[in-house]
Design brief:
Strand 8, helix 6 and strand 9 form a beta-alpha-beta unit. Strands 2-1-3-5-6-4 form a six-stranded mixed beta sheet. With about 280 residues, the chain is an alpha/beta fold. The radius of gyration is 19 Å and the shape is globular. The two termini are about 30 Å apart. The chain is about 35% helix and about 20% strand. The protein binds 2'-monophosphoadenosine-5'-diphosphate (ATR). 2'-monophosphoadenosine-5'-diphosphate binds next to helix 5.
Amino acid sequence: MVTAKTKINIIIGDPVEHSISPQLHNLAYQHHKLDKDFIYLACRVKKTQLKQAIAGAKALGINGITCTIPHKVNVIKYLDKIDKTAKQIGAVNTILNKNGKLIGYNTDWYGIEAPLKKRITLKDKTAAVLGAGGAARAVCYALAKNKIKITVFNRTLEKAKQLASDFKAEYKSINEKHLLKSYDIVINATPVGMYPNIKDSLLTPKDIAKDQIIFDIVYTPYETQLLKNAKKAGAKIIYGFEMLLYQAILQFKIYTNQTPDEDFLRTQLYKLLKIK
Ligand code: ATR
């Protein structure tokens, strides 16, 4: 039951109506008997209203503010403190109100690290990152943190160069796909293959080796064409769903100071995304 003491968490974005975060977190609050302590809501906030929204949330004592498109980078300038990880990634998706001060965190990198760590020892492995945008930055952070040798492959070479220099990585053009088979891990951090362009894939089965891990951060559809091709090549695959799950787990911890039941969240997320 919601009371006058219930702490409010919100997700802000534009659009935000499609977000499953409120359902997922509220179900987890119920499951952990935290639903009198926390509630999670969504607010559509236009890009031009971000400053006012953050000031308002602070004045209202909102406990947590999740940022999604288009606010993850712009929000930084309105916060009191940015933790080291979020600073290095250059984006904030989770804000905690600690005694009236807004502190920015990023949980996306954990969505990359946790699923990889479940499958292999990361130290001294090599990884190819496809893409050099915001998502690729969180991917590179997670890999660099674990001492993985990174090569960024991107369509625009200049962007690959910039990202690579920030994370002591190498960089190459995405046209050099023939090199990809030699990496232990290949992560797609581009939107290629995302709904509605579900037939697209940066790699064919021929570009993939059977002892590789192929991780696609795209999660709509659940099984992208890239992952289908990786299966055909006999590679191990990691669904984008995993990234979504683990970034939510870390966010739940930041907002509530408690560790959520991973299996419960996994099951609920499956249901919410209508994955069979
Ligand atoms: P996000 O914040 O989600 O990472 P972004 O910053 O727009 O989004 O970055 C998207 C990345 O996917 C970019 O690296 C982009 O390549 P460019 O830097 O050349 O634009 C890459 N990308 C998008 N569509 C692509 C396509 N059809 N083929 C190859 N790369 C693509």
